[in-house]
Structure formats: structure tokens, C-alpha cells
Amino acid sequence: MTRNPHDHLHGQAPRSRGRQNKIDVTTHIYRFGYSNVQVLKSVIGVQTDTWFRTARKRGDFSTVKTPDGDLLVLTESTLRLAEYHAERLLPYVELDGAKINLSQVRHNLFAQSVTLRAMRGGSLAAYQTEREIMLGDARGIKRPDVVWISKTGLRIAVEIELTSKWARHFDDFVAGVVAALDESSGVAAYDRFVVITDSKALLTRYQESMSAGQPLHVWRKDGGGKWSIAKKTKIPAWIGERVSFRLLEAA
Predict the structure, then answer these.
(1) What is the value of pTM for the model shown?
(2) Rg (CA), the chain
(3) What is the pLDDT of residues 10-23, one digit of tens each?
(4) In sequence order, what E strands does the chain have?
(5) What residues contact residue 216 under an 8 Å CB cut-off, 6+ apart?
């Protein structure tokens, strides 16, 4: 079947649609810090990278080369555009591509991909990126990679796990998830927690280790900087109703 090259315009004039594409791509990059063409094509509903090649030539975006492929970041001009359209101002350090944490690139792109997929599914009203989330690990609450807001108002914390955590790091992760959902001292930070991975083995391990009644160690660091187990407890019975696990491939 032959496609009309202007089908993706949805009735808009090419110039108007081009302007909206620029705003949408700029806003997405501003909220997440960086992205790549594969993810961004789904943001504006195109199938080729022609628009992005033109935008880069125009100076709208800079390219940062990484072991996980080329990333797009904002330039001074698109940063101003993003801040003009932003609901709230965010720190944006990625103008200097050297400040990107290369160890987190695949992880962050996966988070972007599954979030856009969930938005297209129609059950979400909005989402918040990690840099938009005010609650953090300082209170012992696990700060998720992204928060999905359902159309019914549920705040669903999403954690992307591509490599398995072990020992203290795993205990801290589980304790942070439990704290984020705990209603014993008031309103919970989130209504649900979803752990998403692309590894069947990791999925199985997390499901088993995070089930109700499994041991949970709470760690504390002493004045000398040494970590030790300060408390031994168990994962609460309600965990199965509030935490779910999904096996997904990045789009």
C-alpha cells in the first residue's frame, strides 16, 4: 500500500506541523535530558529520520555520541523554547554532553520507550520524569524512573531494572519501594509500583525475592562510613496487591 507522505500531518499545514514537531521533540528532550531518533520518532508520529536530520542541520539539536548510539540534546535556542513552553522549569545540564551519565543511557532510553508506549495505550493521562519528581531517596523512599498518572488518578511509580541488584543494594531498593507505598503513617507517596525489565531471569528473581513474607534487611551506615544491618524485618503482606512486574522489550 502506498502511503501519502503527508499522512502524519493529521490535517495540519506542513509549516504548522513542523513547528509543533519542534515543540514536542524539544519538550520531550527537556523533560528527560536527552533522547535518540528511534524514541523521538514515536513522539511526533513519523517513520523516517528525515525531520531530525533537517532539525540538526538547522542547529535545533546537538548530537552526543555514546556506546549506546547517538543521542540528541538541546541547544541554547531549543532550551529557550523548552523553558517558554514548560509547566515548570527544570535544571538542564545536558547542553554539555560530557555531563551525561553514560552508564544510564540504555536505562533511560528504555524508560522513555515504555512510557511512550503506555501513553499510546490510552490508559494514562500524563507522566512525570525523574527530574520532575520532588520525592527522593533522602526520606528512604525509592525515587522511580518515571511516574505514570492513570486516567483514574492513580500514581504509578515505574522502575526500570535492566541489571540485577544484590545484597545491600537490593535490600535498599525493596525497602524504598515498601516505604513509597506504605500508608501506615499517612498517605503513601504512590498508589502502585511497577518493575519493568527485559530479562526473564531478573523478572523471576525479583518476583520471588519481593513476595510477601520474604526477609528484608534495613541497612545503616555508622560514623566511620561502614554499612551494617540495623534491622531485620519481612516484606509486608500487601506487597502483592501494590507491586507488579512486567517483561517488555524496548521499542
Answers:
(1) 0.90
(2) 20
(3) 556 667 889 999 99
(4) 61-66, 69-74, 124-129, 146-150, 155-160, 192-197, 215-221, 227-234, 243-247
(5) 171, 174, 175, 178, 232, 233, 234, 235
CA 65 from centroid of its chain's CA atoms: 21
Q: Is 224 exposed, middle or buried (0-12, 13-18, 19+ CB in 10 A)?
A: exposed
127: which strand partners?
148
> How far is the C-alpha of 20 from the C-alpha of 226, rounded, in Å?
53
| Residue among 89, 116, 109, 96 at smallest CA distance from 30 | 89
64 DSSP β-pair partners: 71
Helix, strand, coil percentages, rounded to 5, for the chain: 40, 20, 35
Percent of the chain with pLDDT over 70: 92
Reported as a pLDDT band with limits 50, 70 and 90, residue 138 is: low
Helix then strand count (H, E) for the chain reads 8, 9
Sign of CA dihedral 205, 206, 210, 212: negative
Mapping DSSP onto H, E and C, the string for 67-129 reads CCEEEEEECHHHHHHHHHHCCCCCCCCCCCHHHCCHHHHHHHHHHHHHHHHHHHHCCEEEEEE
